[in-house]
Amino acid sequence: MSDGKWTLQERRAFTACFGGWALDAMDVQIYSFVIPTLIASWGLSRGQAGALGTAALLVSAAGGWFAGWSADRYGRVLTLQIAIAWFSVFTFLSGLAQSYEQLFAARALLGFGFGGEWAAGAVLLGEVIRPEHRGKALGMMQAGWAVGWGAAAILYAFFFTVLPAETAWRVLFLAGVLPAVLVFYVRRYVEEPPVYLASKVKLAVSGPPSWREIFRPPLLKVTLLGGLLGTGAQGGYYAVTTWLPTFLRTERKLSVLDSAGYLAVLIAGSFCGYLSGGFLADRIGRRLGFLVFAIGAGVIAVTYTMIPFGNSAMLLLGFPLGFFASGVFSGMGAFFTEHFPTRVRGVGQGFAYNIGRAVGAMFPTLVGMLSAHIPLGEAIGVFAAIGYATMAIAAFLLPETKGKVLTA
Asked: Structural domains in the chain?
């Protein structure tokens, strides 16, 4: 890659991690599109609907931590396969739910694989890619989220156009089993990173590391600040994206097809934000990149949800909203990979990113509860502002790791 070319191992690892994250996104984002239908057909409150989203995110934090430990102990590649198969199966089962309790259980268990996929995929790709391109590669992997989100939007528009809403939401979930096919590609073509294999050889002599190491100096500071960084980024992001389809349809009075157009602009901005964030992380550094995107995301999110623009202005603002809200994530995989040593990289990266997801997971529920007292747009804006302000503070306190070479 140093001469502009990818090695075979880099290409295969990128394909697996990009595809896994894109399909993970598709399965997770499907839920945001069916919220209005579930509220109407099952008589759910917004608080209950938000709790379904929060359940998946909370359990994903445990899944990410466990997958990180598994990736350190049993390998990045095996853990990635299990995570992909797991979230695919439980998305499928969501479509068969006959009650709120059954759907809650399916969404919660889906979260275990959702969190695990990022933990295994990000550490795998971070170790395979060379340092001068690590930010770009992981930013491109994060862009898979926008691709998966777009796939969910297309499936949503199609199924809700050709089928009754009461059937369409189930079919949408049932289609979520398709990502399981990617497991066969990972199993056949993707290899463990050399730096991980070298570390395993050393640990065979010295003994396995303790996961508690990430809670002791000097890693404790990275773990805490990384968790705070993840909390702000994911809290702000989920406050916006979980409720945006409902906001467009209930407060902006857009139809299914009209709201899909607005979401298409948002998703296009999201894709560009992921790519730009990765390149910016390699150019100006991880820390400054976090600051730029966190401030931009906070300003745009509050503007989009709390100021009553016309529909044309809303359409245009969707692009920068997606750009900044997604670009905040691009440098995270590289940052965590560079801060944690190989022996505990999986568990450290899995915990720091996913503890942020666990706390940030409360934001959709809090938005739903607050919207019972103020307009939904204002509720979204309040928690988006809190999230991105938190991320900016953490980014300001973080040390820089740009260009770090990984060792066993």
From this structure: 9-185+216-397 (1.20.1250.20)
